[in-house]
Write a structure and sequence with these properties.
With 287 residues, the chain is mainly β. The chain has two domains: 169 residues, Immunoglobulin-like (Sandwich); 79 residues, Sandwich (Immunoglobulin-like). The protein is built from three helices and 19 strands. Strands 3, 5, 6, 8, 9, 10 and 12 form a seven-stranded antiparallel sheet that branches. The two termini are 39 Å apart.
Length: 287
């Protein structure tokens, strides 16, 4: 077995062998980060998903979960409904926290509503996944159709969550076993909030949003191109966004078939505008 710390007579090693020795030495001491980031995804209108973003390749191993939790911040007077919590068998607890209760620790929370969502996953497993894969956790609906303010994932380094008086009680966390060693060892493998952490409701109030438009696309999942199908509706623009809310494609002509071969394999959101100013959002999985 190769020992990177064994004494080697460097004069006896050719330049090529020396490179191999150095690479193997680096690999033997490299630490592999096995954790997850959190991100916020807008599914449509006032429906959102908090998801984990894998920062490693689990191979064939199914990571075993124990629990996870996070805080959502919304405008004052707004409530939420939990539609789904994953993996299967997960039960959730939603604890409302009026912003006025924590305004003494962070004055910016005075006009906010906070919701601490914690879960018991009953040892549910995640599917084997590669690095960068999006893993949906909790899907929620925002009630009351707010037209101002935003929905935000509270970051662990925020003024509120990091306040010493709270002792980490509002920190996002994910207790999970990510090591395929035949031993269940739950540890906090949550890293940071990455990608999109907030969506503004002001944007939704400006545009007329509808899911009733008779527009569809196929195939889905797709690998090379998608075909847009509409009945008695004129499409005048198509936008494609990644899960971080960044527009990756803008199409303002030739809407029937759209080449997506240049996109990386991931989940995307296709926003299809009609000439009436209304739009429909469709989730697209790029293979």
């Amino acid at each position: 077995m190769f020992n990177p710390f064994k004494s080697v007579n460097m004069k006896q090693i050719t330049p090529l062998k020396m490179i191999v020795v150095l690479i193997m030495s680096m690999l033997s001491t490299k630490s592999i980060s096995q954790n997850y980031d959190f991100t916020l995804i807008q599914n449509s209108n006032y429906n959102f998903t908090v998801a984990a973003v894998s920062q490693f390749d689990s191979g064939s191993f199914q990571p075993i979960t124990q629990s996870y939790g996070f805080v959502l911040v919304l405008p004052d007077g707004i409530s939420i409904t939990v539609d789904q919590a994953l993996p299967a068998g997960t039960s959730e607890t939603v604890t409302p926290i009026p912003g006025t209760n924590v305004a003494g620790l962070d004055a910016s929370m005075a006009d906010k509503e906070l919701f601490l969502i914690t879960t018991d996953t009953s040892g549910g497993t995640l599917s084997p996944h590669g690095n960068g894969v999006i893993i949906p956790l909790v899907t929620i609906t925002v009630n009351g159709t707010p037209t101002s303010g935003e929905i935000r994932l509270l970051e662990n380094d925020s003024n509120l969550a990091s306040h010493p008086a709270l002792n980490g009680s509002l920190d996002a966390f994910m207790q999970i076993d990510v090591t395929d060693d035949a031993t269940v060892n739950f540890s906090n493998e949550f890293n940071i909030v990455s990608g999109t952490m907030a969506f503004s409701f002001d944007t939704l109030s400006i545009e007329t949003v509808t899911e009733d438009l008779d527009i569809s696309l196929y195939p889905n999942p797709a690998q090379h191109e998608i075909t847009i199908v509409s009945t008695n509706i004129i499409i005048n623009q198509v936008e494609i966004y990644n899960v971080n809310g960044k527009m990756v494609m803008l199409i303002d002509n030739q809407f029937q078939k759209i080449d997506i071969s240049q996109l990386q394999s991931a989940l995307y959101f296709v926003k299809l505008y009609s000439n009436s100013g209304k739009y429909k959002m469709i989730k697209l999985l790029k293979k």
